[in-house]
Amino acid sequence: MTRKPAPPAGAVTIIDVAQAAGVAKTTASDALRGHGRVSPATREAVVAAAARLGFSINRSARSLRTATTGAIGLYIPQVLAHTEHYMSFIYGVVNEAAAFDYDVTLIVASGHAKHGYAPHVDGIVLIDPVAEDPMIQRLLDTGLPIVSSERLLGPRQTTGVVWSNHAHYFTLLLEHLAERGARHPALIASTTHSEWSFAVQQAYADWCRAADVAPHQALAPFAAPPPRLQEIARAMVTDAPEIDAFIGAGDGVAAAVAQALASDGVRIGSRMLIASGVDSSATLAAQPPITAINTQGGEGGQLCARLLFDLLQGRAEPGVELELPLEIYYRASTAGNAGHISSRPGRKRGS
Amino acid sequence: MTRKPAPPAGAVTIIDVAQAAGVAKTTASDALRGHGRVSPATREAVVAAAARLGFSINRSARSLRTATTGAIGLYIPQVLAHTEHYMSFIYGVVNEAAAFDYDVTLIVASGHAKHGYAPHVDGIVLIDPVAEDPMIQRLLDTGLPIVSSERLLGPRQTTGVVWSNHAHYFTLLLEHLAERGARHPALIASTTHSEWSFAVQQAYADWCRAADVAPHQALAPFAAPPPRLQEIARAMVTDAPEIDAFIGAGDGVAAAVAQALASDGVRIGSRMLIASGVDSSATLAAQPPITAINTQGGEGGQLCARLLFDLLQGRAEPGVELELPLEIYYRASTAGNAGHISSRPGRKRGS
DNA sequence: CCTAGTTGCCGGAACGATCCGGCAAAACGA
DNA sequence: TCGTTTTGCCGGATCGTTCCGGCAACTAGG
Question: CA A35, C1' C29: Å apart?
């Protein structure tokens, strides 16, 4: 005992536990993690001793020996961060990881710019990955198992995918608008190169062609400031006065547009229908409340984490894809001329 | 070499580097971390060899030897999570940690319910801690260095504190409202037992007493759904028709209230002034845009992380407190009858 | 030239958990 | 009863890094 880097108060090791239980350290280890052959009586004694001494395992030592880290990484492009969907997603991931006794380490693009960067994790969850993002390329280069929420566009693939059929739900939304009297629905989509963004635009284009109406589409950056979005919407209705409905794809778009048009004297919900591709408190706060797709952030995060652990622990094969079903909340912003919809009616599930 | 848990392809150790550079492992270690006595020529050779071999350190081994983890924890009560302030805060923490080559591990209340819970980190950042939160008590019990954004109320203290003078900025906001013609400003505050919440209510009470006006205050849970907030606001104006201004303390409160009153025909910005204690995209999206305090989430997170590293590395003493200055964005929602304020004027800094 | 101090580098012992292989004792089969 | 297997437990090596102590070689002072 020449030196101790830090003589920590609560430094009870597995050897202490073993001694307290009157067994060897190997037996204590086996008993605690249920690995070797240990009699029930001995196991019980070890567990009791561990509890009594307040033993908590030294993860660094375990990591070193087992060549694992006990953590998974979570990468969130900064541009996406300011929306409720992603906050919920994060909670889904962290809660699920906690159930597996894993930590979650946040990975951001900044710093770590070195070429051979590899985060100190066993696997990674990606949120809505954009193929061009250099950080994502770097993460793929690590060779770690990676699960992404939405597919990664381009030649390279992630180990696992959790995806939703956004085209389907947008089509449902468009049909709903048509049913409520909208003849010329417009779309404000996002410029991001993600599967979600493309699926939305494709669904809109397909629907317009099938319905034989001229598309009115504008693009805005995902995190565009509300005034910019409002400017775009106003320009669109000036340019094409026949527009009688808006779908805002990204978070906050529909709410911002609704506010602008309402303050211009347009009657939202009758003369002009509004729907959002992403639900959030903004769609609920709007007057009237805005019909929206619930993108199930928390469930998505949980599912991604679960899939990653399945991959790490051999319960799933690389290449697996899971579908996450969504919901549409129909609200007064798409009531139409026909009738009235209460503030938050029973949900109608898509698919 | 009996077995390797995982025979990883890129497993280049510091011994490989040392051999490549023709020195002993000790010298290689010293050279890379600049610790011992190494001649410049040798250091250079080692660094070159490390780069050539693509050496990246095994953090588990380092952690084991040095009794550190290379990570800090970040605790965010789930109820707070759905606001932009906290997302920015997270980025601030993670970016700053990356600059110190530290990881950030998210800590959530779920799971880990065991008594002797201790996260695998060197220190912890708390966001707006609530004294009653049992998780916070548990974290305090770990004995790890803890920095909190806003003071922790109650007998126990954190190792370091980053705080803002919210009372000051709310007073400025109230004075601004008065200046613009408001005689009976109402406050919708938050029920959370945080320093921020109390400071806000205290500042309002003090100002009302000094100005000799009757206070009109309501409380709502921090994450109250917008319809509930709107209901509260409508009840307040029905009850006290003299109210001519609202301050919504929490994120989204002011925007929700503004929407409700506007749709009731109240002219926001002249007949009724609106201000928010927290800036977000919702205050910008509102028509008219809403005057708000910028709570500097990103800067707060960065400052907390920096202070934590200062404490960890002995550059700061326990008990230190840092003040984070805020800003007020004056917007059209508080233009008043007198004149007109453009959508986003030059900022006016408080104190 | 001799001693004391400095510089540059190295061997080896930790850190705490895991797990391979071994070895008694107990259980089993005939 | 005597081999053979199974059970229960253990010693010791190992993961990759850090850092203490030591040891030559060199420098400086007198």
Answer: 29
